[in-house]
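Need a sequence for this fold. Nothing fancy.
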């Protein structure tokens, strides 16, 4: 695909988005009118210590809905000059 606007050419693009590992999958998600927000998966963090049934309780949450991308652990820290020790301390979605 190639687009031209104001002498700028876009020759390709890529994305990893919640519920869609590719751009085509994202457009299908939009086309089908699907929502990719889900509950935070247990491999991200244990939500039990943060739950409170009453909204507005300081330091707690009553919902754990999030748009999550797949394979947040598949990050090549060395490629970006980030030490393994630092990489595990960075939020997975921020690393990507």
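Here you go.
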């Amino acid at each position: 695909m190639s687009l031209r606007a104001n002498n700028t050419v876009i020759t390709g693009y890529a994305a990893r988005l919640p519920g869609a590992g590719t751009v085509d999958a994202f457009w299908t998600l939009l086309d089908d009118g699907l929502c990719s927000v889900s509950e935070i998966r247990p491999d991200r963090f244990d939500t039990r210590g943060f739950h409170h049934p009453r909204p507005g309780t300081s330091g707690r949450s009553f919902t754990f809905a999030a748009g999550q991308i797949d394979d947040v652990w598949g990050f090549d820290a060395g490629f970006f000059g980030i030490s393994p020790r630092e990489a595990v301390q960075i939020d997975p979605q921020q690393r990507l």
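For context: Strands lie at 3-5, 8-10, 37-39, 65-67.
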